[in-house]
Amino acid sequence: MRDVSLNPVRPFGHELTELTWLDDPAIAPTLVMLTSGATRVVVAPEIGGALAAYYESTPAGPLHWLRPATQGAFDERDPLRMASFPLFPYCNRIRDARFQFDGGMVDLNGNDVRFAHALHGNAWRSPWQVGTRTERSVELHFEHEPDSQRPGDWPFRYRARQRIELIGGALRIAMSAQNLSERPMPFGMGHHPYYPRTAQTRVFANVQGMWHADADVLPTHLGPHPAVEALRHGMSPDAFALDNNFANWSREATIAWPDEHRQLTMTADAPFDHMVVFAPANDTQLCVEPVTNTTDCFNAVGMREQVGGCVLQPGEEIAAALNWAPRSG
């Protein structure tokens, strides 16, 4: 875990946001609450298998390690406004919602009219089933059955799982997927966590290069960028307007709030060999996403270790885990 300076700049507790939706009788029964000591994780299986909150319960209120879900996220069943959500069977965008694979065209147009390019796969748009659960863990399951009558539907059958667990104060998400089709399936996965963003927030990570992007946030080429060096020394989310993939990171990143005396270190197993930073200018959003593939990986030209993703053979399964370890003081 990276140890960064925790010199105080302003009072502790910027993100002591109350979770009013926990008391909403229409919402509370749909949630799964995990507890370990003072740490809580709230899971919203019906909203894309997403996390609604990850926080420490304090006398002053919940201190959030991830940006908590809004009431609007529940009202509109919108995973994009949750704390984090799973990405299956690919991460981020596919240009024009189509790509060539195995001698044919996979056309995903129409799967979500809000976006010109296919976005984040399909598992985040559907409810997940709750499996085994304990006080500290829960298993979620999602199975996709292709529907040829549904425009832009993912044409491969697959099963996805998440095991979400608290180990002390740390959060662990073990993710897996299995190709249930009778033919090979292109594949990628990831998680999409949002973090609290303050004027003093810093992001630390070792990366080898950045995928530059066009106006549609689709990658054009892999190369140097000042953000690569800035991440090594602690990058302010305000330093650049980013929505970019970083290739071949060390599978460890730290989000630090030195003004609040705390930090959160994210680590990932292979093949989460790629990282996305979403830090738009003049905004409150900050994402540091562990993913197995770059944006538009099914169309991208480059070496496999630069592009990521894989092809799952019939019956083949892939599994890897993500961890978030908090530190305060």
UniProtKB/TrEMBL annotation:
Residues of the signal peptide: none
Superkingdom assignment: Bacteria
Alphabetical list of CDD domains matching this protein: Aldose_epim_Ec_YphB
Record-linked Gene3D superfamilies: 2.70.98.10
Cited Pfam families: Aldose_epim
The protein, known as: Aldose 1-epimerase
